[in-house]
């Protein structure tokens, strides 16, 4: 049985940050321990010191480590009521802007990015929007760029889409071939995929909407507060912030700088001049 000491884990993460620039030191300890343990178990590595040395000596193994430590669960139109709230409460204001900039942070393998693109297309604003989709995981970003997903997932995705208020046939947005679903190229034309580390990187633009769902739950309170501050600095006045159903602004210094748009769906609006 693999037992990971908290201090040893902290030292390893600091060593990796120094060597590679990836910072996991403020990630929730329970989550990191669970994923590191799984990584070690799958490779029959019994001691943390051995893992650290292997990661420092082997770039390819470190890439695998990043891939597995940062992996997140996602699906298209996940939590359909969130997308319905976007359509009903956020899109009407976005329609008043001549140009719309959106940041989807922690995009993982891209399912939520394509969901947003479909919603924007149906509401007639995709052509004047740019959606910046970022993640720390390069492998996930590549899968997101390709926009190819298992065909067996489409039944569930179709149900989510319909519950979210979709206005067309979901199958119109992809081509089914060889057991996979390839999403329409037109959806990707307004998406920019790029690497971004929420733990260390700064703001890179000003946005009308920032969506970061089910990412903060993997961070400790200090990092959660830092990231919310990053989003605050990156939003224009009256810009919208969407979080996951189990996330909040509770531990953020900017808590009072936002007002609820749809509290149940964790959609907020910046209401303070920076």
Topology:
Layout: H1 6-20, H2 29-42, H3 48-57, H4 59-69, H5 80-94, E1 100-105, H6 111-122, E2 129-135, H7 138-146, E3 148-150, H8 154-163, E4 174-177, E5 180-183, H9 185-188, E6 191-195, E7 207-212, H10 221-234, E8 235-243, E9 258-262, E10 267-270
Parallel strand pairs: 1-2, 1-7, 2-6, 7-8
Antiparallel strand pairs: 3-5, 4-5, 8-10, 9-10
Helix pairs in contact: 1-3, 3-4
Give keywords.
7-stranded mixed β-sheet; globular
The termini sit apart by 51 Å
User: How does CATH name the architecture of the largest domain?
Assistant: 3-Layer(aba) Sandwich
CATH topology of the largest domain: Rossmann fold
Q: Compute the number of helices.
A: 10
So, the CATH homologous superfamily of the largest domain? Answer: Vaccinia Virus protein VP39
Overall form: globular
Order of helices and strands: HHHHHEHEHEHEEHEEHEEE
Widest β-sheet, arrangement of strands: 6-2-1-7-8-10-9
Biggest sheet layout: 7 strands, mixed
* Total DSSP E strands: 10
Q: Which stretches of 5+ consecutive residues score pLDDT under 50? A: none
What's the CATH class of the largest domain, please?
A: Alpha Beta
Report the helical percentage. Answer: 40-55%
Q: How many domains would you count in the coordinates?
A: 2
Mean pLDDT: 94
| Percent strand | 15-25%
In angstroms, what is the radius of gyration?
19 Å
Structural class: alpha/beta
């Amino acid at each position: 049985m693999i037992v990971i000491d908290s201090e040893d884990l902290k030292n390893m993460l600091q060593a990796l940050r120094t060597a590679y620039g990836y910072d996991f030191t403020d990630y929730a300890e329970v989550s990191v321990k669970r994923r590191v343990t799984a990584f070690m178990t799958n490779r029959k590595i019994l001691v943390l010191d051995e893992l650290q040395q292997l990661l420092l000596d082997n770039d390819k193994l470190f890439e695998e480590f990043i891939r597995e430590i940062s992996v997140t669960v996602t699906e298209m139109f996940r939590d359909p009521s969130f997308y319905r709230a976007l359509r009903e409460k956020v899109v009407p204001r976005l329609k008043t802007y001549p140009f719309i900039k959106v940041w989807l942070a922690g995009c993982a393998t891209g399912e939520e990015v394509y969901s947003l693109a479909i919603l924007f297309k149906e509401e007639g604003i995709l052509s004047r929007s740019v959606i910046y989709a970022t993640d720390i995981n390069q492998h996930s970003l590549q899968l997101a760029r390709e926009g190819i997903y298992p065909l067996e997932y489409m039944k569930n995705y179709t149900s989510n889409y319909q519950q979210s208020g979709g206005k067309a046939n979901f199958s119109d947005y992809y081509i089914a071939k060889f057991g996979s679903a390839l999403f329409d190229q037109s959806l990707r034309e307004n998406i920019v995929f790029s690497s971004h580390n929420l733990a260390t990187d700064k703001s890179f633009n000003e946005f009308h909407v920032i969506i970061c769902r089910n990412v903060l739950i993997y961070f400790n309170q200090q990092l959660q507060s830092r990231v919310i501050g990053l989003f605050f600095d990156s939003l224009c006045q009256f810009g919208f912030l969407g979080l996951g159903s189990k996330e909040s602004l509770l531990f953020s210094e900017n808590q009072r700088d936002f007002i609820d748009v749809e509290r149940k769906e964790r959609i907020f609006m910046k209401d303070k001049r920076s």
